[in-house]
Mannitol dehydrogenase family protein (Neorhizobium petrolearium), 466 residues
Amino acid sequence: MQRLTASTPLPAHVIKPAYDRASLKPGIVHIGLGAFHRAHQAVYTDAALAEEFGNWGIVGVSLRSVDIVHDLRAQDGLYTVIARSAAGDSARVVGSVVQGLSGTEDQEEILSLMADPAIRIVTMTVTEKAYGYDPVSGGLDRNHQAVVADLANPTAPVGVIGYIVEGLARRHAAGLPPFTVLCCDNLPTNGRIVRRLTIEMAGSRDPALATWIAGEGAFPCSMVDRIVPAATEETRARAEKLLGAEDKLALDTEPFLQWVIEDRFVSGRPKWEAGGALFVGDVEPYEKMKLRLLNGSHSMMAYLGQLHGLTYIRDVIAVPEYRERVRRHMAAVLETLDPVPGIDLSAYQDELIERFSNPGIAHLTRQVAMDGSQKLPQRIMVPAVEELAKGKDASAFAYVSAVWMAYLMKISDINDPRAAELKAAAAKSMPNDPSAPFFAIPGLFPQALVENRAWRALVNAELEKL
Ligand code: CS2
């Protein structure tokens, strides 16, 4: 079977880039070429280019993996996004990614591009754990591998913040304006976190650079949403049928997508509104809504699924007892949210249940269960702290914490940057206070929870039941 390339004739039912790809030049460097980016920001950029053409092609950078970059080159940057639902499948070949580079093979090319005036935005999806963010200090985690390496050797970075700082340093030296840094990961106030980490790392090599970034730089916050499971052999087989060509980068996703962005860009941006992006002054209410209602429920379902042998999120939501649990969790989360402009929160919750139930989406509970130590703070722990401060019992959040601990005690093969500490805690047996070893892990739970005996008793009570 022929591989998908720019010269592949595509069937009429496939949505194709509606602009002159051959004349598209890069304007964005994106770090983190995973499934999420390809089904989200790249799709928005594809829509933006079709409505208002400009030099906003994406250079996709993978810091570690070379395979994906080689596949992208073999396919002229093209790949298929299959939106799946009970109503059927619809395929779109996305054309906004013009080039792929890998940190392992093309470091100098990436850095010189970042210092090229044509590049005006650097976006990123590298997952929570990649930033080297210390939730206790709010600054750089000085034990994080990439942070340590990039502080020691700033001109040959390995981590995402190291690349941003070296790219900005080169622009500063050349008298260019900075690029806008747009974080697209599921961190609360993601732009502010990345700004702080960038300025801290820049300051450690050159205080003048840090001052320049603080004064001239822009780090808009953004809330991103689309459920994109890891692709499988079935995904690729489906793409082959839909296209009549082989596509090693094809993805399954849901029809839904959402992007809420603060409109603060140094040197312009694509017309992402064309794909439905919403530009607002303050992203925080949207981000809290999504992190707590969607991602918080997701984590709960992932650990319930892992505990009870359920493979996919859709299997968990199909169990009436667990669906009811999700509903109750959402009701508790609602107490922590302010009104969100333009959003009906009751309809939003119903829509989430629908999305979790999508029969076309095979989202592994194992995948969502990954990296709990990096995800639960913003999804579960911070809302618990807020509720306790208001005099509430925050029992819903105690329940999810207990489900997570029960999962850690039962499943030995976990994927988490703090796996060693979590596994050691899970192996300790404390019959009268089973959650204690987890609360003793430094910086894992916020201090306000560690010190709250009543809340910890709720966690223990749930853990006993599980
Ligand atoms: C999920 C997210 O894996 C996870 O932790 O909760 O990837 C989720 O699917 C996306 O944030 C949806 O926008």
